[in-house]
Amino acid sequence: MTRPVLCSILAATAATSVVPQFFVSGFTHILPEGLDHILFILALFFLSRSLSVLLAQMTLFTIGHSLTLGLALHGLVSVPTSFVEVAIALSISFVAIENLFHDRISRWRPWLVFGFGLVHGLGFAHTFGGTSLTEIEFLPALFSYNLGIEAGQVVVIGLAYAAVAAWWKRDLYVKQISRTASTVIALVGFYWAIERSI
Asked: Long-range pairs for 21-25 at CB < 8 Å and ≥24 separation?
């Protein structure tokens, strides 16, 4: 009786040992390595000054990228890396451009953010997929990797708010900061899309 229990304890210990490693891997995939994902999160941030709007978009983005990350790692979805990278760049530009024409979340924006989350999840999968894991380590590693990604995104939002906090409630914020930042983000996204498609 003690041997199965001991084996279960050892297996659980081995599984949880991957948690810190993959949390850090997920976090560093955003900060400092994931400039494209950072710009997408900033594009969401610059839509409006409503925390509920930002949280709604972040939640949909998280659901989307978690879904395709899991499916891709199980071999149920497979998309060429080059296509994914171009699509990620275009998603950045699209969201940033929409910011220039709207000051609140549109009816279609939640679906777009969710869809773009699906695309970004495929990008995360290309990084995560290069690791070797046992079956019992897979779920803890996947969960902690996603948790690391979320922690990185929260830090990005926190830093962005700290950078603009002094102007957050002023009238010039939308015209001089939010729209300027969105324009720059859109241009960078287009540049990356062209560069990655060549």
From this structure: 21/141, 21/144, 22/128, 22/131, 22/140, 22/141, 22/142, 22/144, 22/145, 22/148, 23/144, 23/145, 23/147, 23/148, 23/151, 24/148, 25/127, 25/128, 25/145, 25/148
Reported as a single tens digit per residue, the pLDDT across 78-101 is: 888 889 999 999 999 999 999 998
Cα–Cα distance for residue pair 28/31, rounded to 1 Å: 5
> How many residues belong to the chain?
198
Task: Check if the beta carbon of residue 186 is closer than 8 Å to that of residue 63.
Answer: no
C-alpha to C-alpha distance for 151 and 9, rounded to whole angstroms: 29
pLDDT tens figures, 170-186? 888 888 899 999 999 99
Residue 83: CB atoms within 10 A of its CB come to 13
Q: Is 145 helix (H, G, I), strand (E, B) or coil?
A: helix
24-82 confidence digits (pLDDT tens): 988 998 998 889 999 999 999 998 888 888 888 888 898 898 899 888 877 788 888 88
User: Rounded to the nearest 5°, which phi and psi values hold at 173?
Assistant: -60, -50
Amino acid at 86: V
> Which amino acid, one-letter code, is at 127?
T
